[in-house]
Amino acid sequence: MEEKSKKPQLVSIVGKSGTGKTTLVEKLIPELRKRGLRVGTVKHHLHAFEMDSPGKDSWRHKQAGAERSIISSPHRIGLVMDVDHDYSFDELIPFFSGMDIVLAEGYKGGNGPKVEIFRPEVHAETLCLEDPNLIAMVTDQEMEDLQVPIFGLDNIKDLTDFIIRAFKLQRSV
Fold first, then answer.
1. What is the pTM of this model?
2. What are residue 59's phi and psi, to 5 degrees?
3. Cβ contacts of residue 84 below 8 Å, gap of 6+?
């Protein structure tokens, strides 16, 4: 498998809890892949988690003190690794060698490009209107004087086109 040496483009999908960030990422991934792009994702989680189930071998390795535990199969690799701080989106780049774009669910406080999903029936206020890194808004709410493009909640094709143009992404697969 030949991987590209260039860094992937990074885009954070941000929004308040319950607005549909995961659903948006789930819709963007296949649309980007249809365009021939290699897509990676990051879920930024502020609480501790376990990737593997208690009692499984990889979990037991980690519990025994391994700093890094990799689960490898013919179809996927999972990595669990101890860290000494909350990694920034940029610090995770080495894990995404060969990807064209990495979508992060979260990192609203980061300095990278952000697409915010806003649903006023869930939360009354947006998160990033004043953030200079906001590149697009996904909402069905009318919004006046917004300095970035607005895409409807179901307008995934146009949002994908925008992301491809904004980052000059080119088919790699």
1. 0.85
2. -65, -45
3. none
Q: Which helix (H) or strand (E) holds 135?
A: strand 134-138
Instruction: Kindly give the confidence (pLDDT) of every residue in the chain, 173 residues in length, as a single tens digit, with 9 standing for 90 and above.
Output: 444 457 899 999 999 999 999 999 999 999 999 999 999 999 887 666 666 678 877 777 777 777 667 777 788 778 877 889 988 888 888 889 889 999 999 889 889 999 999 999 999 999 999 999 999 999 999 898 899 999 999 999 999 999 999 999 998 87
Q: What is the set of domains in the chain, with CATH numbers? A: 1-46+86-173 (3.40.50.300), 49-85 (no CATH)
- State the alpha helices, DSSP H only, in 2-130: 21-34, 57-63
